């Protein structure tokens, strides 16, 4: 086993199992480009401040660029014995350009280096998440416009409540996602802060320029406290919280998709491309993608809790425990991006069984509120109107008919003032379109809602 880059004060080499336990290269190699960008910014700053010579800086930068080329050609072999992405790159550099490569780590520690990489990675992934949310929102708007006037049953307690527009129901998810997008955008101000230059914990004796590297890496500011800079993982927790809320939203949506495509509901038909079959039951077409998203929302909740527990007992400043931030964060990021993207395709390709949806609202008692509201227009106090309507619903159930099938003569025995304009009011379309309040379910209100929603999505 070759000597570790930090091996000066050691006389024995590391136990093999320990080396394997200690390494993180299997996980953190995805930080390759972020580490490279950090290296290049740092070396440029060192040269700019005359901490290293122009010639040395040039040699180092050329060496780093050559490593990027090797990496892209697939000829770079990361080694577990060099622990992590940071030491692997430094080792590769020294192999390529000789001992001058060792100057790269002047005025820096792996503690501010890994923190920098993680901030860069978090920023990049946050932007991808925001973009993916935006695409899903776009699909929801398209779907809502396509089926703008289709009526479906609205539920409370999973019991038919009142007829609503399918588009109104779908747009609910748009606004959930919009809050998610806002939360991720808000996080960026804490993500986009530079820890570089904080050293191991205390700063550095070299005359570095932290604004220079912050600017080069696109950060908005520098951490005011070097100890905080290397110890802070709050921004990762923030992002993981946001990921959890987003996954929870997708999980709720998944639950509806799963119900809606069942034989019992038949509201939608999922595309073959987004479903799976059964190894035994030839008739099956299962909504596995929605189930996986629902399931994975549990996994990312566990990831968040895992990192929170890792952090809660840590004294300042850097502790190796912090290496554990990666696995859970990377898994959560991968999961949420895939989930949003797969969801987008699943929604885009599904069919809405409009005829069936409309029929369901015509064959239930979800127009009972219309009847009560109608009695109110006859100057009956709402509480009494509710009681009378309840009795009428009971009468209809007992006689196995719907409210619209109750004869006028019977209505008149209960409320003499009633006349036959009651029947048009029992039509679900009438019920829906009377809800003209600003956030209500009428076609007009939902059209205005969609117009408003469109101002929140970035156009390609
Ligand atoms: N691989 C380490 C991590 O992910 C890098 C920092 C190591 N620093 C140290 N002092 N051992 O946290």
List keywords for this structure.
binds arginine, 6 strands, single chain, elongated, 460 residues, two-stranded parallel ribbon, Fumarase C, Chain B, domain 1, Fumarase C, Chain A, domain 2, 19 helices, mainly alpha, Ribonucleotide Reductase Protein R1, domain 1, two-stranded antiparallel ribbon, 3 domains
Summarize the structure.
Helix content is 61%, strand content 5%. The chain contains 19 helices and six strands. Strand 1 and strand 2 form a beta hairpin.
Task: Give the topology.
Blueprint: H1 16-22, H2 25-28, H3 32-48, H4 54-73, H5 85-97, H6 110-146, E1 151-156, E2 159-165, H7 166-191, E3 193-194, H8 210-216, E4 221-222, H9 226-231, H10 234-260, E5 268-269, H11 288-312, H12 325-349, E6 351-352, H13 354-362, H14 368-377, H15 382-398, H16 408-414, H17 422-425, H18 428-433, H19 443-454
The structure holds arginine (ARG).
